[in-house]
Amino acid sequence: MPVLANIYYTHHRGGVPSRPPVILIHGAGSNYLCWPAEIRRLRDVSVYAIDLPGHGNSTGTAHHRVTFYQSAIIDFIAQLGINRAVLVGHSLGAAIGLQLAHDHPQHVAGLVCIAGAASFQIDSSFIDLFRVPQTQKTALELMKTYFAPQCGNQQWFPNLLKSLTTVRNSLWYADLRASEQFDLRSQLSRINTPALVLSGTHDPLVSSSSASYLAHQLPNAELIRFYKHGHMLMLEDPKGVAKDILGFYQKIADND
Known about the structure:
This protein is α/β, with parallel strands linked by helices. It is built from 10 helices and 8 strands. The radius of gyration is 17 Å and the shape is globular.
């Protein structure tokens, strides 16, 4: 089982070694399996799909701060023996990527934010549902509605529903707290890293307006909207998302 810096990962070997690899960073309560094969196996690209600390097959504990997850990614990059990578993050994973691009831009060749935002509008009463076992069922029912497919491919949803019940309350709570406390709105203008923002117009967790704000405030970003799609955009339209990531990556690699 491949592990570096206490992070479990899978590796698709492709591309030119001198070009930066892609690192896929999943969202709250998830693991590397949230990325469909079309994205984990981008053509002619070296792709690492990781489990964050305390998630999936990785050891350690989940964190209440995005900056702590950021440190884990920096350690992982160092252990790979590389200097820079293109980060592709979903939701909380996008927040981790943004934080890294702000604090350590020398390590980020490019950034793709899927269902990402400069800050997340999460009701604290929803987060508190994960604090005690008695309200877990209510919390998970709400989570199902947030993750439900809005358009496109829906075959993945039954497996996701099963996986939701296997995630510890403490992990959900930590990840949602990390999301709640994340706020880079006042610092986006300092992030000059090339960025691509992918947004589902019917995302119930991260509004289309939040994604637009993120893309327009970043100095070097492009916004692509997926009409009628939801929060799990990369599962609803894996081929479309993979195509956009690959096109963005090729621009970065050619100019790197």
